[in-house]
Design goal:
Layout: H1 2-8, H2 18-21, E1 30-34, E2 37-38, E3 42-43, H3 49-61, E4 65-69, H4 76-79, E5 88-93, E6 100-101, E7 106-115, E8 136-139, H5 143-150, E9 158-160, H6 171-181, E10 186-190, H7 191-199, E11 204-208, E12 219-226, H8 231-243, H9 245-255
Parallel strand pairs: 1-4, 1-5, 8-9, 8-10
Antiparallel strand pairs: 2-3, 5-12, 6-12, 7-10, 7-11, 7-12
Helix pairs in contact: 3-9
Domain Solute-binding protein family 3/N-terminal: 29-255
Protein name: Amino acid ABC transporter substrate-binding protein (PAAT family)
Pfam families: SBP_bac_3
């Protein structure tokens, strides 16, 4: 969630010229730029699924894993990747021009989270009439908010902050807490956040939103981000991602991340 807030903030700093970045990639360590408090994706205690991906890739590359920690807020890329302190951001939406994207290594979507034994347990779309008059938690300014407006659900919606420092604020956790206590009836979250966080809450059910019509789309292809101009490094990572796709899928599925096919039309079949 906070990662998409970062992307929405626009270009935060100009990348170094291509001629200047070629020598910045370390040959001594797999250097990862990460948020220390962005669970369930990255965490300084190593429990995030992006931590597990980083550990796996470091092992495959035969290098020690080294982190540069910085909150995923304005200035993240400028103070980490562009400063030459680290060489890759594990998760980045495909097409963002702030970084050079690798090939995508998974596709996911936003999810609807409801109480498993509640009256909304059978809902699979935001267009379902059963949601009318319900209190739906949503991240303000996120793509699903536009769909809630389209379906007349914003009048009773409960907004949660978009741009946050996760060291001091946890909108996704608060959203699920409110759902469990009955303060809200449903929650809409980015799948790689909502899926893993709800996995440890058996009272909740996670429903990938696969049938939403109209813009904006709710699914995204996720890549790794490197500095502009580092095409050799990008190609090296692409080769590793291709070879290790099954292992990465296993890590993501184990974490509870909903995996979609490349076109966002359905769940990705397990190999």
């Amino acid at each position: 969630m906070t990662r998409f807030a970062l992307l929405a903030a626009g270009l935060l700093a100009a990348a170094p010229a291509a001629a200047q970045v070629a020598d910045l990639v370390s040959d001594q360590a797999f250097r990862v730029c990460a948020d220390p408090a962005n669970a369930p994706m990255s965490s300084q205690d190593g429990t995030g699924f992006e931590n597990r991906i980083a550990e796996h890739l470091a092992k495959v590359l035969g290098k020690p894993l080294d982190y540069t920690w910085f909150p995923m807020v304005t200035g993240f890329a400028r103070n980490t990747l562009f400063a030459g302190k680290c060489d890759v951001v594990i998760g980045y939406a495909q097409g963002d021009e702030l970084v050079l994207n690798t090939n995508h290594y998974y596709t996911s979507t936003h999810v609807l989270v409801v109480r498993a034994d509640g009256p909304l347990a059978g809902v699979t779309s935001l267009a379902d009439p059963a949601l009318q008059g319900r209190r739906v938690g949503v991240v303000a300014g996120s793509p699903p908010a536009s769909h809630l407006v389209r379906h007349g659900l914003m009048a009773k919606a409960r907004p949660y902050n978009l741009m946050v420092d996760r060291r001091v604020e946890n909108p996704a956790g608060d959203m699920l807490d409110d759902l469990e206590t009955g303060a809200t009836d449903a929650a809409v979250l980015w799948g790689p956040v909502g899926g893993p966080l709800a996995k440890g809450r058996p009272a909740l059910k996670v429903v990938p939103l696969l049938a939403e019509e109209g813009a904006p789309r709710l699914y995204y292809r996720i890549t790794m981000g490197v500095r502009q101009g580092e095409d050799v490094w990008k190609r090296a990572l692409n080769s590793v991602l291709r070879r290790e796709q099954a292992a990465l899928d296993a890590i993501l599925r184990d974490a509870g991340v909903p995996l979609l096919d490349d076109y966002g039309r359905g769940l990705k079949a397990a190999e």
